[in-house]
Amino acid sequence: MHEAGQVVANALTAVREAADVGVSLRELDEVARDVLREAGATSPFLGYRPSFAPTPFPAVICASVNDAIVHGIPTGYRLRDGDLLSVDCGAQLNGWTGDSALSFVVGTPRPEDLRLIETAERALAAGIEAAVAGNRIGDIAHAIGTVCRAAGYGIPDGFGGHGIGRHMHEDPSVPNEGRPGRGMPLRPGMALAIEPMLIAGGTDGYHAAADGWTLRTNDGTRAAHAEHTIAITDSGPRILTARRA
Predict the structure, then answer these.
(1) Is 3 exposed, middle or buried (0-12, 13-18, 19+ CB in 10 A)?
(2) Cα atoms in the 13 Å half-sphere on the side-chain side of 145
(3) Considering only CA atoms, which of 168, 89, 175, 106 is closest in space to residue 136?
(4) What SUPFAM superfamilies does the record point to (predicted)?
(5) Which residue ranges are tagged as binding site?
(6) Which CA distances in Å does 98 have to 7, 113, 122, 226?
(7) What is the pLDDT of residue 233?
(8) Side-chain-facing half-sphere of 181: CA atoms under 13 Å
(9) Residue 52: predicted pLDDT
(10) Contact by Cβ (8 Å): 13, 244
């Protein structure tokens, strides 16, 4: 899984380096496709169609801009100065899967956007820190939710992390808010994708856009998304999608 995770990490790094004012989301998808192709990996996103989706997903990344929380379809939209972009990417290699996401600002950042992104990263770090053998899924959820709520941000209900391994989405689900000491016990050998999603306005409401995929904030405020695939080991959590500094 670490090998698949490193393909994802390299794809996200390449996308972030390519993202600039005037670059289209579709062009960023092509950047990620090239990384996967060169690594001999395939995309678990491309052609994916869960029960809620009207059509199969047409890309290898989700590119969510500003008030889009997750699942944004890469289109011909060209990035503008100050856009907040969240990019989610997955890879399958030798029968194993990796999944990760990051958020960043293109061009000139607004302080409030930087704070939102930094909080998403802190929430992710708190969730990973709680992913130790002997804890439970609720401990991860509680750690994430505590960071998000303390900063005054909303958490989209019903969306969160998941188990991962041979397939992108496996049991158990990993909520972004919950009660500590509840849920499935964590044990060495488990692999999870932990992914906080934050809404800047502090409300939790969202809706699906006309494309049936993109989830947007109801209040129109911006959103941020951070994700890593991690393994629970005897010596603590191991991040399988860690990106090079």
Answers:
(1) middle
(2) 20
(3) 175
(4) Creatinase/aminopeptidase
(5) 71, 88, 99, 162, 169, 195, 227
(6) 8, 27, 21, 14
(7) 98
(8) 0
(9) 86
(10) yes
Beta bridge partners of 236: 233
Quick check: 72 and 46 in contact, CB under 8 A?
no
pLDDT tens profile 189-237: 999 999 999 999 999 999 999 999 999 999 999 999 999 999 999 999 9
Phi, psi angle pair for 153, to nearest 5° = -100, 155
The whole-angstrom separation of Cα 144 and Cα 179 is 11
CA distances (Å), 165 to each of 13, 91, 107, 191, in order? Answer: 22, 11, 36, 7
Q: If residue 205 lies in a helix (H) or strand (E), which one and from where to where? A: none
Whether the Cβ atoms of residue 109 and residue 82 lie closer than 8 Å to each other? yes
Q: What is the DSSP letter of 32?
A: H
Helix (H, G, I), strand (E, B) or coil at 53: coil
The binding site for a divalent metal cation consists of 88, 99, 162, 195, 227
Instruction: Give, for 29, the enclosing helix (H) or strand (E).
Output: helix 25-39
